[in-house]
Design brief:
It holds the Pfam family GATase. This protein is an alpha/beta fold. It has seven helices and eleven strands. It has one domain: Rossmann fold (3-Layer(aba) Sandwich). The strands form three sheets. A seven-stranded mixed β-sheet has the order 2-1-3-4-11-10-9, sandwiched between helices.
Length: 240
């Protein structure tokens, strides 16, 4: 099954030097499920020719706000609506969670309560799961028909399901503690309070929640695998 990764942002060099790009990180965490990967730098103006260019899609996080005026956002929203209408499997993480909600009629805002950074505890329909977060924006109104499947006191809409083919998560399941610590120094100091950053740096890792979430992502993709192998010609890789 061929998964397309839509890069809506890129990690700072302090992160990518040791951990790779976002497509490389996601491909590594989804390894072993029989997937192949291609990446498009959507933030830089690259878009797939069709929602059927891959068998499923994953939208990454970004330093941008979904409600901001950036050239890549309108075509990405159109792509999301087309994928939803065609029931093509789609996963969104952090900004991906937000832009999918906005494209389908929800609301995204800068949260007055401030930032969530590092390990957070979420209720996934009665299943307690710890995941690393890095966000100030939140989905404050879910689109019609979307189901809230994870929440916590700080983030009421922490994950959404749309039918059986879309899953979005506000947290960053691809971030382990080492990545969070690197982000703290690269992007956090001077922007987020030292108290919050120091607490995030010393928090235990979230490997159990990470595995659970990536198993769920993989299961969603596999549930919509094509009956025959994809005929997509792979001209791209997740090395971007």
């Amino acid at each position: 099954m061929h998964i397309g990764i839509l890069e809506t942002g890129r990690p700072p060099s302090e992160v990518s030097a040791d951990f790779g790009t976002y497509p490389q990180i996601f491909a590594r965490l989804l390894d072993g499920h029989g997937f192949t990967f291609s990446a498009w730098h959507v933030e830089g103006g690259e878009m797939p020719a069709s929602v059927h260019a891959c068998d499923g899609w994953l939208i990454t996080g970004s330093r941008h706000g979904a409600y901001e005026d950036h050239a890549f956002i309108p075509p990405l929203e159109d792509f999301i609506r087309q994928a939803h209408g065609a029931h093509v499997p789609l996963v969104g993480v952090c900004f991906g969670h937000q832009i999918i909600a906005q494209a389908l009629g929800g609301r995204v805002e800068k949260f007055a309560g401030g930032w969530a950074v590092g390990a957070q505890t979420y209720d996934f329909n009665g299943d307690t799961r710890r995941l690393n977060a890095w966000h100030q924006d939140q989905v404050t109104k879910a689109p019609e028909g979307a189901r809230i499947v994870a929440t916590n006191p700080f983030c009421a809409i922490a994950a959404l399901r749309y039918g059986t083919h879309i899953l979005t998560v506000q947290a960053h399941p691809e971030f382990d503690r080492a990545i969070v610590r690197r982000l703290i120094d690269a992007r956090g100091r001077g922007v987020i309070s030292d108290t919050l950053l120091d607490a995030a740096a010393s928090a235990p890792d979230t490997d159990t929640g990470q595995r659970q979430t990536f198993d769920e992502i993989a299961a969603l993709f596999r549930a919509h695998a094509p009956a025959a192998p994809s005929q997509t010609v792979q001209t791209r890789t997740a090395q971007g």
